[in-house]
Design goal:
The chain is an all-alpha fold and about 200 residues long. The protein has helices at about 10-35, 40-45, 50-55, 60-80, 85-105, 105-115, 125-145, 155-170, 175-180, 185-205. It has 2 domains: about 1-55, Homeodomain-like (Arc Repressor Mutant, subunit A); about 60-205, Tetracycline Repressor, domain 2 (Orthogonal Bundle), CATH 1.10.357.10. The protein is about 75% helix and about 0% strand.
């Protein structure tokens, strides 16, 4: 068909790409990049392996596509930290947004964690170009709040690391959390209350 490559993908093609990416997210989050195979992705998507390769060149392209899609979502909670807001409430709001992401996007959290644990071979450019300047900017905002006496003085960098560690834990170690809390239906609410108390005590001037 003339100029076929320039045409917008059909609804079926768009649907199949979404199926593949959703299936791959599940497979990568369970098995990691090295443990995942195109055969597993094909089975999870309900498509043949040749069909997968019609849309993507291989496992790495699928993985990179997922990481690229994830990065904006992953950074957004930090982006929305408002320099003009109430400092403590801004920090607590950030904690809550990160905890909500752990609940609502556990596969994405494990995909990100798996990439970082491998040394970020595919995400390193994003970390340098996107995360680093945002991280520096928000650390400066938090530091300015501390200098004004609106928050207790701690290292803003390690504060953010602590927020990541205490919220993403609920996604990355979900199997352990579920065993230890025995499917406690109040897990998310309990975690939110605990973390709000902890960071309030830490940061109240």
């Amino acid at each position: 068909m003339p100029d076929g490559a320039d045409k917008k993908p059909s609804r079926i093609q768009q649907r199949n790409r979404r199926l593949i990416l959703d299936a791959a997210l599940d497979v990568f989050s369970k098995h990691g990049y090295r443990g995942a195979t195109l055969d597993q992705i094909a089975v999870a998507a309900g498509l043949s392996k040749p069909n997968i390769l019609y849309y993507f060149d291989g496992k790495e392209e699928i993985h990179v596509t997922l990481l690229n899609q994830l990065m904006e979502t992953w950074l957004d909670p930090l982006v929305t930290l408002d320099p003009d807001g109430d400092p403590l409430q801004e920090i607590l709001g950030y904690v809550q947004r990160k905890l909500d992401m752990a609940r609502d996007l556990p596969r994405e959290s494990r995909l990100f964690a798996g990439e970082i644990l491998q040394g970020a071979p595919r995400m390193a450019p994003h970390l340098v170009a996107d995360l680093q300047p945002l991280f520096d900017e928000k650390c400066a905002v938090i530091g300015a709040w501390m200098d004004k006496g609106a928050l207790a003085t701690v290292d803003p960098r390690h504060l953010i690391f602590s927020i990541w560690a205490t919220t993403q834990h609920y996604a990355d170690f979900d199997a352990q959390v579920q065993v230890l809390l025995r499917d406690d239906p109040e897990c998310h609410g309990g975690a939110a209350k605990y973390l709000a108390t902890m960071f309030t005590k830490l940061l109240s001037p």
